[in-house]
Amino acid sequence: MKKIVKYSSLAALGLVAAGVLVACSGGAKKEGEAASKKEIIVATNGSPKPFIYEENGELTGYEIEVVRAIFKDSDKYDVKFEKTEWSGVFAGLDADRYNMAVNNLSYTKERAEKYLYAAPIAQNPNVLVVKKDDSSIKSLADIGGKSTEIVQATTSAKQLEEYNKQHADNPTILNYTKADFQQIMGRLSDGQFDYKIFDKIGVETVIKNQGLDNLKVIELPSDQQPYVYPLLAQGQDELKTFVDKRIQELYKDGTLEKLSKQFFGDTYLPAEADIK
């Protein structure tokens, strides 16, 4: 009987030891899996609201939450956001410091030659903003001799620089600034310049949030889809495939629409055919 007890005890100890080894092995595997994930650094300027903004020291907004949804539960990627100046977004993509960027970015031929565009995640046409008591500006045909504030290398800056090349006899006056959009709109309201061209969602949000009731919005014609895109550095083809697939999934399962209503107050999504 003693021998049987001894054998059983040894067997039990063996089973315990085996269980410990299995547990350790399982834990090591999980740690290895976590360590093998690739960190994706997403650059942003941190504005304009409601696309991107800070709340209680944390980045949030439509684009930020879309990116978080894209990488949620990924067994391959971890996502990290890095805030930088507007020019630093592109410099960082050029230097491979950033894998990806979100900043209410529209399509331009110049960017498409340097970076990879993911599928669009929002629809956001440009508008012209002026003071309600200014009847001298009713369309782009009226901006000659009028002044505005722009941030260098933005889509609207390039659009207006091109305008001046074509209207050298009566150019619009461009004042370059590093101020954020909220500050620029405040100065427009104060009459420090005459007009601003920007996207509809951003404009309407700032007018509402800052109480800029003396401003009015004029719709502008567009010859292309006014979409907002995540931008990726060259060479990130595999990441682009992943991001595009997830955007399609988030469109189909209603996540994009939910986030659009949460941050924009309505549905501002691309046509489904344009995200395939």
Task: Based on the model shown, name its key terms.
13 strands, D-Maltodextrin-Binding Protein, domain 2, globular, 9 helices, disordered N terminus, alpha/beta, 276 residues
N/C terminus separation: 74 Å
Radius of gyration over all CA atoms, rounded: 26 Å
SSE order, one letter for each helix or strand: HEEEHEHEHEEEEHEHEHEEHH
- The count of helical stretches stands at 9
Low-confidence stretches: 1-32
CATH class of the largest domain: Alpha Beta
CATH homology group of the largest domain: Periplasmic binding protein-like II
- Major sheet attributes: 6 strands, mixed
Q: Would you count the extended β strands for me? A: 13
The proportion of residues in beta strands is: 15-25%
Which secondary-structure class do the elements indicate? alpha/beta
Describe the structure.
The chain has 276 residues and is an alpha/beta fold. It has 2 domains: 127 residues, 3-Layer(aba) Sandwich (D-Maltodextrin-Binding Protein, domain 2), CATH 3.40.190; 94 residues, 3-Layer(aba) Sandwich (D-Maltodextrin-Binding Protein, domain 2), CATH 3.40.190.10. It contains 9 helices and 13 strands. Strands 1, 4, 5, 6, 7 and 13 form a 6-stranded mixed β-sheet that branches. The chain has a 3-stranded antiparallel β-sheet with strand order 11-8-12, covered by helices on one side. Helix 2 packs across helix 8 and helix 2 packs antiparallel against helix 9. The termini are far apart.
